[in-house]
Amino acid sequence: VYRASTVIFPTVQAMEDAQKKKLDTTFYGVHGTPTTFALEDAMTELEGGYRAVSVSSGLAAITTALITFLKSGDHLLMVDSVYGPTRNFCDTTLRNFGITTTYYDPLIGEKIKNLIKTETKVIFTESPGSYTFEIQDIPAIVNVAHKHDIKVMIDNTWSAGYYFKPFDHDVDISIQATTKYQAGHADVILGHIIAQTEQDWLKLKITTGTLGQAVSPDVCYLALRGIRTMGVRLRQHQKTALILVEWLANRPEVNNILYPAWPEDKGYKLWKRDFAGASGLFGVVLNQVQKEAVAALAEG
Ligand SMILES: *Cc1c(COP(=O)(O)O)cnc(C)c1O
To answer: Which of 41, 56, 77, 84 is most solvent-facing, going by the fewest CB within 10 Å?
Structure first.
């Protein structure tokens, strides 16, 4: 684990050489250390793309990506099934800075073209959606977006970057709440933004630099250790989830299951087309039941 704030160079020449490439080297701790860079390399190997940027949380990865590619007067198309705090950011901070948001149906597909304005600069996706688990037709959305020079971002946390490869579908920016499956042990808060191109990566790196975003090398180390077992953990998550889903599907209290890897799910076909597997998170819609009964289930 490389910990650093100030870095001492042996000569002025060495300092000046390092200064020229300070985005790529340990020049001052805020820009990262070899531990940060090693985790960013691992995240890039996982997701594909040009390169990753580490930030302090998954939510910070989302907000940092949005403010990098939006400015006052711009318009954002945001999926309606998005993670709650992302919606909150659009409705508060982005709105206060003069950026407008339109929420769109996660199942919209290529019809998203009808919502595009001249000011639209970003289409944000999350597939499957938080809580409701709709699978989006990412290739169809990317196809429309790129005709209008609009950036496509994805919150790829559910697939962990292991089961869905955004850059194979020409998505511009992928986002991971590294907190979840990569870290894997509920002891880390961390986020990553992965860019498909060097140009976009530089823009992200400049935003994190100007904002003073920094992550702890110790936290990066924990994520590097966690990610080593991510494959076996995810394969078990999928097995366990399917066992639970089969059991729940036969319960009288259950109205519906929301899990794209379940053949009866309405997203199954798209999931099968675009994903190599499923993580463990799913939703259950219950029939009318007492709150106490739900609590008893959860506590048991
Ligand atoms: C947890 C989560 C986040 C936020 O990550 P934090 O590290 O908790 O800020 C973002 N998106 C999705 C889909 C998540 O599940």
So the answer is: 84
